[in-house]
Amino acid sequence: MTRVYNFAAGPAAIPEWVLKKAQAEMLDYHGSGMSVMEMSHRSAEFKEIIDNAKASLRRLMNIPEDYDILFLQGGGSTQFFMVALNLLQNGADIIDTGQWTKKAIKEQKKIGYVHVAASSKEDNYTYIPKIKQEDLDPKTDYVYICENNTIFGTKYKQLPPHDGKLLVADLSSCICSEPVDVTKYDLIFAGAQKNMGPAGVTIVILKKELLDRADQDKLPSMLSYKVHAEKDSMFNTPPTWGIYMVGLTCQWLEEVIGGLENMEKINQRKAKKLYDYIDNSKLYTNNVNKEDRSLMNVPFVTGDDELDKKFVAEAKKAGIANIKGHRSVGGMRASIYNAVTEEAVDYLIDFMKKFEKENA
Ligand code: PMP
To answer: What is this enzyme's EC (predicted)?
Structure first.
């Protein structure tokens, strides 16, 4: 068996510890005689799985008791409009940092008034716009951000001002990569398929007091946070396998990594090595404003499309998978999520050095 060095943007690498534990429990989960995938979501075994996953995530992220944790379906793309259906009364202020906010703007406009408070579009989304309170529309209910832009490799290091407004954040590509102060947010969502497990489950963390904002008579049940919260994410059949894998990933973060402070240190070391090498190289460039660089997604180019193609092809032969940049921007992108080891990053840098030498 050969496992590749996987730099995929999502679905992405999963810690080997998690995969092996899932493998060991695959045919007979804890003496139940069946796999988690074959189990009723109403069973005592599954109740323990979902309760443990929630409790572990609560401990890891230090989520206060006045916040609910939901495990939903429909990906980040459903959250683009579900937040508006549940929270928007007068309007939304959205900061545009590329693809994932562009889509949120488009969807939320179908539901209500949207004010784009700032955008880094004119510079091809290479930075995070710094906004002031005055840039916000006084009448909106919330400020919406994508905290880490997976495609452009940008990351908020400081949250935007939002006095008198809620803060809603898409943490799909940075959740659990570092500690965050959950109390600074009103709603966080994240698809699991980058840092938390397989595709198919979306984590939503929201203040309980927000559950009563929407008119429940007008909201389809599946799109109501309140309905899911009241049913403990079991209003309908939840994505059982995904929730189990999120639970194992949380267990790995707690017991093997030792918490999010440690995870952050490892991630910072990985990212620093890669950015330092790129910045000192004569071949590769990363165009993102240094202070806005992502810890998780590192796009880079050679400046020559043909050479980029050659890089991707040769990298593949060397066991480096999914290094091609997003189709909308081209070039390369190394997604160095939690499960991507320091060894993998070192291997990538060695390959980049060799390629640079050969193509100087
Ligand atoms: N938000 C971010 C930051 C993303 O990177 C993605 C997907 N890559 C999405 C939202 C959309 O998620 P999904 O494909 O799960 O709908």
So the answer is: 2.6.1.52
Domain assignment of residue 276, yes or no:
yes
Per residue of the chain (360 residues), give pLDDT as tens: 789 999 999 999 999 999 999 999 999 999 999 999 999 999 999 999 999 999 999 999 999 999 999 999 999 999 999 999 999 999 999 999 999 999 999 999 999 999 999 999 999 999 999 999 999 999 999 999 999 999 999 999 999 999 999 999 999 999 999 999 999 999 999 999 999 999 999 999 999 999 999 999 999 999 999 999 999 999 999 999 999 999 999 999 999 999 999 999 999 999 999 999 999 999 999 999 999 999 999 999 999 999 999 999 999 999 999 999 998 889 999 999 999 999 999 999 999 999 999 998
Alpha helix stretches (DSSP H) within 185-336: 225-230, 240-251, 260-280, 305-317
> HSE of 94 in the Cβ direction (CA atoms, 13 Å)?
28
**221 assigned ligand-binding residue:** no
250 and 214 belong to one structural domain? yes
CATH number assigned to the domain comprising residue 267: 3.90.1150.10
How many angstroms separate the CA atoms of 48 and 2, rounded? 34
Return the active site residues.
100, 170, 194
232 and 153, same domain (yes or no): yes
Residue numbers of the domain that contains 193:
29-257
Q: What is the pTM of this model?
A: 0.98
- Please tell me the distance between residue 203's alpha carbon and the centre of ligand 1 in angstroms: 12
Is residue 288 located within the same domain as residue 221? no
